[in-house]
Write a structure and sequence with these properties.
Blueprint: E1 12-13, E2 17-18, H1 20-37
Antiparallel strand pairs: 1-2
Length: 61
Amino acid sequence: MTVELVVRDDLCTRPAILHGSAIMAFADTFGAAGNILNLPECAWTTTIESKTNLIGSAPLG
């Protein structure tokens, strides 16, 4: 699965840098989707811990 997030103004802090929580919510959502799609029928999972270390910024656009 490949997903992309367009860095829009409504997801940015100031000055026009993608907010870390937007990145984490995006990663968590699609990580869960990929996980569920690959589980056997009637199986389930949960997140024990989730941590993000940001090493750079994503500018608007």
